[in-house]
Design a protein that fits this description.
Layout (H helix, E strand, L loop, with lengths): L4 E8 L7 E6 L2 E6 L13 E5 L2 E6 L1 H16 L4
Length: 80
């Protein structure tokens, strides 16, 4: 199991083998690598799950909200 952080693609960066994206993570823009999912194409508005600076999964808004909800639950130490 990995700890995945949800984010939304703002834009893809030119160059870098089309493997870098700027992703909004909780209001902060982060540069992340999409190279672990070579069969996928990403664009503005796509929801992703990030682990250690790499996109590990494409998701939708509901999936991103569920991931964030789980992270919030762990952060507050509430029982599952």
């Amino acid at each position: 199991m990995c700890l995945g952080i949800p984010g939304r693609v703002v834009r893809m960066l030119d160059g870098y083998g089309d493997m870098l994206a700027i992703v909004d993570v909780g209001g902060a823009e982060r540069k992340v690598n999409v190279g672990m999912l070579p069969e996928e194409t990403f664009g503005p508005g796509d929801w992703v799950i990030i682990h250690l600076g790499f996109v590990v999964e494409r998701t939708d808004r509901a999936g991103a909200e569920a991931a964030l909800s789980g992270l919030n639950l762990m952060g507050r130490g509430e029982p599952i």
